Amino acid sequence: MHKIICLILFITTTLHAQTKMSIAEINALKEKVKTHAIETKTISSDFTQYKHLDFLSNDIITTGKLAFKTPNMVKWEYIKPFKYSVIFKNETLYINDEGNKNKIDIGASEQFKKLNHLIVSSLKGDMFDDNEFVINYYKKQGNSEVHFGSKDKKFKKYIKVFYITFDSDGDVIEIKIIEPSNDYTRIVFSNRILNSSLPDEVFTH
Amino acid sequence: MRYLLISFCFFFVGCASYPENNNFIKREISDLVLKNTYFSDKQKDYIYKATINVNDKPFGGVFIVKKIRNNNHRVVFTTEMGNKIFDFSFINEDFRVNYILEDLNKKILINILKKDFKVLIEESPLFLNAFSSNNYAVFETKIYDKRHYYYTISNQIHKIVRSGKGKEKVIFTFKNTDNFIANLIKIEHKNLKLTINLKSI
């Protein structure tokens, strides 16, 4: 009997680890994140990416650095276990793959434009667009986890839903992108510095 | 008459088999074993940084192979940022496309990739003949009805050549190998502008 009570308590606690937010809490979060997004001029951060494929024994772990400068310059730089960087700048995607440089004009591609917009908005956390997404808000271990399900049919083929986790200050600490197959990519940010001076050279190809 | 003779010579040289063109010496097969073990460890996640050159345009990604169980491999390619490009299953003689990016969903491309990856994961290909060439023991095999020549030293595969009309069509080279992994793999197409370089990470 004692064991059953313990089990019930355990299940209840687990369920409560992720609870839906109230309307007031949602509005407070939105407000905090939006103010943050307006104030954010630059972001520099380390990141660890976990690629989860169900059939693998372990997630594929890659680490690197992220730089963002307003209005829309983004650099993802993978450092380990390979050197690869991608810069989104002026409607162009600049790739440096272990020294092999390449660029792609994204102005022509609607899909890439969307991707860039998504990256910039999700870095700043400011993407609470109910016209574009079905959004659900949860409280999880002192943080806020927001689930975005795209309403766009094309987009849904690539990404079923993605989660953005905000800490209590409204900073993005984790992004999880879930594919239709339920395989996912989880990116965890650390050593995040806001509004430090980031020279344009950081974003040079 | 002389031109006719030369033409005939060309015709016959042109039609010679790959072993003939490369002066292979036929040998007994009783003492030889052929097994491709480079993707055969079920405990291992085989992860490679890939660079693919198509029509002189390079693009990169992460190439993943997992042996799920005997005669069952999963082959997946993602971008460095984690987006899946394609996801294939090889189960016995069946081939299944679990996912492929819409823009790449072309039968001709899938067929090329299917044939190349089958060579990588096939552990015991249909064995036809054995030859000697320099220091190599060369095995003639058939995969998807095409002849493949496995160049081996001490049962370790160094190179596989897919031949057509007696010539090299695709060359697979394996470097930095031990029994259960080839750390560097190159797949080079001679009839297409396509090269795949894989480096284990």
What does this molecule look like?
The complex is a heterodimer of chains A (205) and B (201). Chain A is an alpha+beta fold. Helix content of chain A is 26%, strand content 44%. Chain A has one domain (21-195): outer membrane lipoprotein receptor (LolB), chain A (Clam). In chain A, strands 1-8-9-10-11-12-2-3-4-5-6-7 form a twelve-stranded antiparallel beta sheet. In chain A, a hairpin with a 3-residue loop joins strand 4 (73-80) and strand 5 (84-89). Mean pLDDT of chain A is 85; it is low at 11-16. By secondary structure, chain B is of the alpha+beta class. In chain B, 16% of the residues lie in helices and 54% in strands. A 13-stranded antiparallel beta sheet of chain B has the order 1-7-8-9-10-11-12-13-2-3-4-5-6. Mean pLDDT of chain B is 89; it is low at 7-13. The chains are: A alpha+beta (205), B alpha+beta (201). The A-B interface holds A 49, 51, 53, 55-58, 60, 62, 76, 78, 81-82, 84, 86, 95, 97-98, 100, 102, 157-158, 177, 179, 181, 183, 185 and B 43-45, 47, 49, 51, 57-60, 62, 64, 66, 68, 74, 76, 78, 80-84, 87, 98-99, 102, 201.
Layout: helices, strands, pairs:
The complex is a heterodimer of chains A (205) and B (201).
Chain A: H1 2-16, E1 18-20, H2 23-39, E2 42-52, E3 60-69, E4 73-80, E5 84-89, E6 92-97, E7 100-105, H3 110-124, E8 133-140, E9 143-150, H4 153-158, E10 161-166, E11 172-178, E12 184-194
Antiparallel strand pairs in A: 1-8, 2-3, 2-12, 3-4, 4-5, 5-6, 6-7, 8-9, 9-10, 10-11, 11-12
Chain B: H1 2-15, H2 18-21, E1 25-26, E2 45-54, E3 57-69, E4 72-78, E5 84-91, E6 94-100, H3 107-121, E7 126-133, E8 136-143, E9 146-153, E10 156-164, E11 167-178, E12 181-189, E13 194-200
Antiparallel strand pairs in B: 1-7, 2-3, 2-13, 3-4, 4-5, 5-6, 7-8, 8-9, 9-10, 10-11, 11-12, 12-13
Signal peptide (chain A): 1-17
Protein name (chain A): Cell envelope biogenesis protein LolA
Pfam families (chain A): LolA
